[in-house]
Amino acid sequence: MTPSPFRFKTCQSLSSINAADWDALVGQDHPFLSYAFLNALEISGCVGARSGWHVLHLLCYDDQSRLVGAAPCYIKSHSQGEYVFDQGWAQAYERAGGAYYPKLQVAVPFTPATGPRLLAKDHDHTIKLALAQALKSVCLQMELSSVHVTFPVATDHQLLCEQGWLERHDEQFHWVNEGYQTYDDFLQSLQSRKRKLIRKERQSALDSGLVIRHLTGTDLTEDVWDAFFEFYMDTGARKWGRPYLNRDFYSSIGATMADKILLVFAYRDNKPIAGAINFIGGDTLYGRHWGAIEHHPFLHFEICYHQAIEFAIRHGLKKVEAGAQGEHKLARGYRPVTTKSAHFIADPELHAAVASYLQQERRHVEALHQELAQHTPFRKIQIETIETDHLET
Question: What is the pTM of this model?
Answer without folding.
Answer: 0.93
